[in-house]
Design brief:
The chain has helices spanning 9-45, 49-60, 63-69, 78-105, 107-112, 114-119, 127-153, 158-185, 189-212, 224-229, 240-260, 282-312, 324-330, 337-372, 375-380, 386-418, 425-452, 459-477, 481-484, 503-525. By secondary structure, the protein is mainly alpha-helical. The longest helix has 37 residues, at 9-45. The relative contact order is 0.09. The mean pLDDT is 85.
Length: 531
């Protein structure tokens, strides 16, 4: 590639792999371990093939589960069960991994000034973009091979195992292309990430509507998540949608290179609006202004998702309340149909809470991005204390996700009321209130890492993924209670249950408060990273 617009691509790729090897390794281990553990647990979950067929019949007739987990095409085999249980969430997080990898080495590198140093050397015009996309593709391919290889080693049919791996790898390749384009559109890394994650959220929603609405399967062809689902591991093992995902990733990358050649260094195709010549809003107004794009994006997403969730809750009236697996999957301590309905609403609220937790982490890490990009130095050169600078972000990271969750819960309750569901509005909102300490803990962890050890801030995302997997898969895998209780999302009680245990919620609140105080104290004492 010497003497071309790609000169230096392989050197930059090697450098990117060296920088990201410890950031990507935990993701690979998690993606490799969860499908294998689920596969190993299959024989202990169903005592007979009839139970698997009963569950499949239940899930096939209920659109709510198709919306959450995707269609259950074949639960009579272990690989079919693994596919249904892990594909949707894994697709989402593989895509997220690819998006952050591409943005980190393209748009964020320009924001921090590192790209300027790289471009001053002997590198081609498209070398940085090409190396970032190749990094994301290699990581996605590693996920696919790891999932396929570990499942095949555990005894799964290789065709089904590698079809599931291909499904995940294809999502990473396609969304690396999406991130490559948004990195050219956004005027900053946070804008690029927000645009790419918005595409991912829309893709999830269109896929869910395609799986749940009558005569709407055509919606699956409108988005990468729908294409990936068409691979149908364990049943069809149809690999040709993988070519569609790879083509989308390649075409979007070419489009990104074309956009890159038509914008100035450090600027996006969508220009950022200049602020006032003199700051008049104060630090609280500045913090709100910097984060208002995220408020709208995450808020609208939570309300839209809550509305769709509300529309499908009425279908739970037809679910077999005596299906032992349904109880095991949703809530294994419920006794009545009303409690089962509220337990299902609790699962829907759990998804909204996890998204709200991600919103809180995003706000906390965005604060560090201002420091990393050397704008915090200018702000702190004014007569403003460290505590005065950090407090508005801490307050917003706690309050904004809570407001978003409550709006999403209100939309869910309204949707349920419209469709005639038996879910009580007051109970839904109280259940959402009970989830707040869990999302506050997620935000507090991110704030504590920013305040005490910013170089380890990526652990906040890993911890959220760990909590998600533990809460969603732990009961099915029959993990011990002490391990399940390490997730604050698992210990949230069902507010409609007569024996609801609120002690874990108070513990969650106490830990979040300690982390928040530690974050403020730590940021007040530590040095700025880029001074």
């Amino acid at each position: 590639m010497s003497g071309t617009q790609f000169t230096g691509t392989l050197l930059l790729l090697r450098h990117a792999i060296r920088l990201d090897r410890w950031k990507l390794l935990p993701w690979l281990l998690i993606f490799g371990a969860i499908p294998t553990a689920t596969y190993a647990a299959y024989s202990s979950i169903f005592t007979s093939p009839a139970e698997a067929l009963l569950l499949q019949a239940t899930l096939t007739t209920n659109p709510a589960f198709a919306l959450l987990f995707g269609p259950a095409t074949d639960l009579t085999t272990a690989i079919g069960f693994v596919t249904w249980r892990v594909q949707m969430f894994s697709m989402f997080f593989v895509a997220l991994m690819a998006v952050y990898a591409v943005t980190r080495h393209t748009r964020a590198a320009e924001d921090s000034g590192q790209a300027e140093l790289v471009d001053s050397g002997v590198v081609g015009q498209h070398a940085r973009l090409a190396s970032a996309v190749l990094l994301a593709w290699i990581a996605s391919a590693a996920v696919g091979l790891l999932v396929g290889g570990t499942l095949a080693s555990a005894g799964a049919p290789p065709s089904g195992a590698f079809a599931l791996g291909a499904l995940l790898a294809g999502m990473g390749v396609a969304f690396a292309g999406v991130a490559a384009v948004t990195a050219q559109l956004g005027s900053a890394a946070r804008t690029a990430n927000t645009l790419a994650v918005s595409v991912l959220g829309i893709s999830y929603l269109l896929r869910g509507l395609g799986d749940t609405l009558t005569d709407a399967s055509w919606l699956l062809w409108t988005n990468p998540m729908g294409w990936a689902e068409r691979i149908r591991p364990a049943t069809d093992n149809n690999f040709w949608p993988l070519a569609l995902l790879a083509a989308a990733g390649a075409i979007l990358t070419v489009l990104a290179a074309w956009l890159r050649s038509r914008r100035d260094f450090g600027l996006g195709i969508i220009p950022g609006r200049p602020g006032p010549a003199q700051g008049q809003a104060g630090i609280w107004g500045l913090t709100s202004r910097l984060d208002r794009g995220a408020f709208w994006t995450w808020g609208v997403s939570l309300v839209a998702l809550g509305s769709v969730y509300g529309l499908v809750t009425s279908t739970m009236a037809t679910v077999f309340a005596d299906n032992p697996f349904i109880k095991q999957m949703i809530a294994f301590r419920v006794a009545t149909e009303e409690q089962l309905l509220m337990a299902f609403v609790g699962v829907l609220l759990l998804v909204l809470t996890l998204i709200s937790g991600a919103f809180g982490i995003h706000l906390a890490l965005h604060f560090y991005a201002e420091e990393e990009e050397r704008r915090a130095e200018w702000v702190l050169s004014a007569p403003l204390s460290r505590l005065g600078y950090f407090t508005p972000t801490a307050v917003l990271a706690i309050l904004a996700p809570a407001v978003g969750l409550m709006l999403g819960a209100l939309a869910l309750a309204a949707g349920a009321k419209v469709t005639g569901s038996a879910a009580d509005t007051g109970t839904v909102l109280r259940q959402a209130l009970a989830q707040l300490p869990a999302l506050w803990l997620a935000a507090a962890v991110a704030l504590a890492l920013v305040g005490l050890a910013p170089r380890l801030r990526g652990l906040a995302w890993l911890l959220l993924v760990y909590w998600l997997l533990l809460t969603m898969f732990g009961p099915v895998l029959k993990l011990p209670d002490w391990l399940l209780n390490t997730s604050p999302f698992h210990v949230v009680p069902n507010v409609s249950a007569p024996d609801a245990d609120w002690l874990p919620v108070w513990w969650t609140l106490a830990i979040a408060a300690v982390l928040l105080v530690s974050a403020l104290a730590g940021y007040r004492r530590r040095d700025l990273v880029c001074t």
